[in-house]
Design goal:
Distance between the termini: 38 Å
Helix content: 10-25%
Strand order of the largest sheet: 3-1-2-4-5-6
Strand content: 15-25%
Largest sheet: 6 strands, mixed
Shape: globular
Number of strands: 6
Order of helices and strands: EHHEEEEHEHH
Length: about 240
């Protein structure tokens, strides 16, 4: 990958513009914003739905309490310096610009998505948003997905990057371009900060996701394998007598 000439600039609250869509029959208004501790119950439900989709429920141990304690601890680092979560919200009503006041490091991304048919969301009440600014636009603001990412580093590039741990869009909102919006938000932030790359993994059986990632220009690296120490194996190796 080509390296940028300048070192990473300090993050700012300047708006990031995403590509426009061509109007069609029904309009879905979207907002991507930084998550807060108030979003943890929704994040927990989204993680569980993702575990069901990935057939990995038996590995999902996260609770609302453990997520709140680790994602939003006291004196947490600023956004993008550690674990960062973007929440994707949707509404039938336009979002006011920076309705939640924004952040010193990130301004919410607003975009309209034009659909041929309205979306029937059976979980609308369960995923009603707790985000700031919701009262300005009515009560139909719904959490549709999230992406969780954090900084990593490439010694080959001598540049930081972002690693996406999870990206998930609820089933009724898939194939509408919303996953692409979330990925684009992370990529735009990485580019804005002068970072060298964004990386993530995909399950080998998820052919649709692999095709989508390839079409967007991502490289699939089959020669690499994930190595993981966890649970008893982690504890045992931690006490190996070297």
């Amino acid at each position: 990958m080509a390296a940028a000439a300048a070192p990473p600039p300090s993050p700012s609250a300047a708006a990031i513009t995403l590509p426009r869509s061509t109007p069609s029959g029904n309009t879905l208004f979207t907002r991507i914003r930084l998550a807060t501790v108030d979003d943890v119950p929704h994040i927990h439900k989204l993680i569980h739905q993702m575990a069901v989709f990935e057939r990995l429920v038996h590995m999902c141990e996260a609770t609302i309490e453990s997520l709140a304690a680790t994602l939003f601890p006291p004196n947490a680092p600023p956004p993008f310096a550690s674990f960062t979560v973007f929440i994707l919200e949707v509404s039938s009503t336009p979002f006011p610009p920076a309705a939640d006041g924004g952040s010193v490091r990130f301004t919410p991304l607003l975009k309209s998505v034009h659909l041929d048919l309205p979306i029937d969301d059976p979980g609308r009440d369960e995923f009603r948003s707790n985000g700031n600014g919701v009262n300005f636009i009515g009560s139909d603001v719904t959490v549709a997905g999230f992406v969780l990412f954090f900084p990593n580093y490439s010694t080959f590039l001598a540049k930081p990057g972002f690693y996406i741990e999870d990206i998930f869009v609820r089933e009724c909102y898939r194939r509408k371009g919303l996953g692409k919006l979330l990925l684009s938000a992370v990529a735009a932030q990485a580019s804005k900060m002068g970072y060298g790359r964004v990386e993530w993994v995909v399950l080998d059986w998820n052919v649709n996701a692999i095709t989508f990632y390839e079409q967007m220009g991502a490289q699939i690296l089959p020669e690499w394998r994930i190595c993981r120490l966890t649970g008893d194996a982690l504890g045992a190796f931690a006490h190996v007598n070297l």
